[in-house]
Design brief:
The chain is mainly beta. It has two domains: 4-70, 2-Layer Sandwich (Alpha-Beta Plaits), CATH 3.30.70; 85-206, no CATH class. Helix content is 9%, strand content 27%. It has helices at 26-30, 51-60, 129-133, and strands at residues 4-8, 12-17, 66-70, 85-88, 94-97, 100-102, 105-106, 111-114, 155-159, 165-174, 180-189. Strands 4, 5, 6, 7, 8, 9, 10 and 11 form an eight-stranded mixed beta sheet that branches. It has a three-stranded antiparallel beta sheet with strand order 1-2-3. A hairpin with a 5-residue loop joins β9 (155-159) and β10 (165-174). It binds FE2/S2 (inorganic) cluster (FES). FE2/S2 (inorganic) cluster (FES) binds next to loops.
């Protein structure tokens, strides 16, 4: 369940979705005067750095937990990427950066981290359960599966209950080291953690009896 916290500055509002945060530390390392979890009281101080810097760090939050809203326009201060990317994180989730629709509904955030260990309690999103589960995958892609890729556009993500994450639309697949693996327009990506062909679904979810909750 999302719980949005709002931190108001002179010109911007920083929104923080606690449920989507997996504590990567990108924001606290980039702008420690703005994002500081060791402070007592509120941890976000939007006016402690230039607006553009705060907006950039929010737009780069890999899970989409942070958004920077302009008070002048009422709109989020980020833009669609020139290239949609789907990146495998070693021993961790799948980072997606794109204009997205999930299960038929447009997402406000242009970034999200999706579970690929099968253990998240916030399916389809990552909640860091891969650590407890000791999920292991270095992010290498043994067999790239390129397909006809459209020029650009929205990524349509569909979660198959008890099965894969279906992706349709143009994207570039990046491995765990950030290297481009292939461009594609369609893929079924493993969410259960059991596939022998990661990141692709190979049907192993049917033998491991992968079950997820109703959020699917
Ligand atoms: S979702 Fe993991 S093999 Fe299909």
């Amino acid at each position: 369940m999302s719980r949005i916290h709002r931190y108001e500055g002179a010109d911007i509002i920083v929104e923080f979705d606690l449920a989507r945060c997996i504590h990567t530390g990108d924001c606290t390392h980039s702008l420690p005067d703005v994002f500081n979890t060791s402070r007592t009281g509120r941890w976000v101080h939007p006016d402690a750095a230039p607006v553009d810097s705060v907006a950039r760090v929010c737009a780069d939050c890999p899970t989409g937990a942070l958004r920077c809203i302009s008070k002048a326009t009422g709109k989020a201060m980020d833009s669609a990427p020139s290239i949609n990317t789907v990146q495998l994180m070693p021993d961790g989730p799948l980072y997606v950066h794109a204009n997205m629709a999930l299960n038929g509904a447009p997402l406000a955030a242009r970034r999200a981290a999706f579970c690929r260990c099968g253990k998240s309690r916030l399916m389809p999103y990552c909640d860091n359960s891969h650590r407890e589960a000791e999920f292991s995958h270095d992010g290498d892609v043994a067999i790239p599966m390129p397909s006809e890729a459209p020029a650009n556009g929205t990524l349509t993500l569909t979660v198959k209950h008890g099965g894969a994450l279906m992706i349709e639309g143009p994207f570039t697949l990046l491995d765990g080291a950030g290297n481009e693996v292939c461009k594609s327009g369609k893929a079924a990506l493993c969410r259960c953690g059991a596939s022998q062909m990661k990141p692709y679904c190979d049907g192993s979810h049917t033998t491991t009896r992968f079950e997820t909750d109703a959020q699917d």
